[in-house]
Structures are given as C-alpha cells and as structure tokens.
Amino acid sequence: MTLCYDIDISYLYPPEVFDDPAQGALLRRNGLQPHSRANYVAKFRDQRTAQALCGAADEVRAFFRDCGFAFAPSGVTLPKGKLDHRFQNHLTDVADRMRENLAIYDLSKQDLNGLDIEACTRAITAAQPVTPPVREVAHRIGKGKSKVFLAFLLRPALALPALVLAMILTLQFMTGTQRTVVSSNLIDANVTLLMPAAR
C-alpha cells in the first residue's frame, strides 16, 4: 500500500497570540516563541497515513514524536505535493529532524506498519509552497459580510436565549400594562369614595 506523505503544520499557539503584551510575555517566559519547534506539530494530511503511524511499533511512534509529529490527520485540503507557503521553513525543520533522529533510532527491525521513512523525508523536502489567491479570499469575505449578523443570531446556541429574552420582555410589558390599568381603576374607585354623596 502506497501512502501519501504530505504534511501540514499546526501551531499550538497561533503567532498572533504572541502580539498580545501579557499573553506573549507569559508564553516567552515559559520558553515558547511564535515559530519555535515547541510551538508547532506536523500532521500527515492523509488519514490512512496517520492511521498507519498510530498502528506502528512504539519505537517508530517515538521517532515520529521526536521529529515533531502529532498522530491525528491535519484535515487540510491542498493539492498533492503542495504546502501552505507560511510553513515552508517548518517543513524543512521537520525533514532535518527526521535525518538527525535516524542516527539515534534504530528502526531497521521495527514494524513500520507500511510507513517508508525515506519516502516520507523525500516528500517533505520536495513539497512546493502554494499561496491561496488573495482576491478570491477577499471576495468570499466581502460576500459574506452582509449575512454575518443574521447567521450570528440564528446560531443554535443563541436561539434559545433570544427566545427566552423575547418572552420575558413580552410578559413584562403585558404585566406592566395590566398593573397600570388596575392601579388606575383603584384610584378612580378611591376618588369616588372620597367624593361627597350627591344630595
């Protein structure tokens, strides 16, 4: 079975978080940098490849873990052999780590579960960066702006609270109106009692 070795990068903390003075300082104090090895994981794009990795021998999984891999598929949809241009340096780093760790781990007698480490390294090194067309993304964002507020209100998590709030306001308005009528009638009755009787 030939597996697909396209990988994608997932940040543990997106680089934008480091722009926040408080959060960025806290993360940096704990040894994290926006693009450091400790702040991202590599994931196979293909689900079969991710499953093969999960089913491989313990030593093989430890090798991939030390190379920065997570064992879940990335869920990214890009053409075969392509990668998001923002992560080109990260992929180079993953390939370097794989070469370095091959000198540490002896995988010659391990059950690779169909994985081919050399083919994986070649695929990672040969991946070509792609950039999504900015105009297309901007068009999609602009087109959806008018529907954002309506979609926000129609979210299931907000539908029930909005309905309850509407019912409370309706009941409060109706009860307030009835109180006004009742109190007005009581005032009229009291005024009538206080008036001197007609002779």
Compile the SSE list and pairings.
Elements: E1 7-11, H1 21-29, E2 40-44, H2 47-54, H3 58-66, E3 82-84, H4 88-102, H5 117-126, E4 128-130, H6 134-153, H7 156-194
Parallel strand pairs: 3-4
Antiparallel strand pairs: 1-2
Summarize this structure as a short list of keywords or feature phrases.
single chain; 199 residues; mainly alpha; 2 domains; two-stranded antiparallel sheet; two-stranded parallel ribbon; elongated
Largest sheet geometry: 2 strands, antiparallel
Note the beta-strand portion. Answer: 5-15%
Helix/strand/pairing class, anyone? Answer: mainly alpha
Strand order of the largest sheet: 1-2
How many helices? The count is 7
Shape verdict: elongated
The SSE order reads EHEHHEHHEHH
Number of structural domains: 2
Mean pLDDT: 77
Keywords: Membrane, Transmembrane, Transmembrane helix
Transmembrane segments: 148-174
Description:
About 18% of the residues have low confidence. 55% of the residues lie in helices and 8% in strands. The radius of gyration is 32 Å and the shape is elongated. By secondary structure, the protein is mostly helical. 18% of the residues are buried. It has two domains: 125 residues, no CATH class; 56 residues. The termini are far apart. Helix 4 runs antiparallel to helix 5. It is built from seven helices and four strands, in the order βαβααβααβαα. The strands form two sheets. The protein has a two-stranded antiparallel sheet. A two-stranded parallel ribbon has the order 3-4.
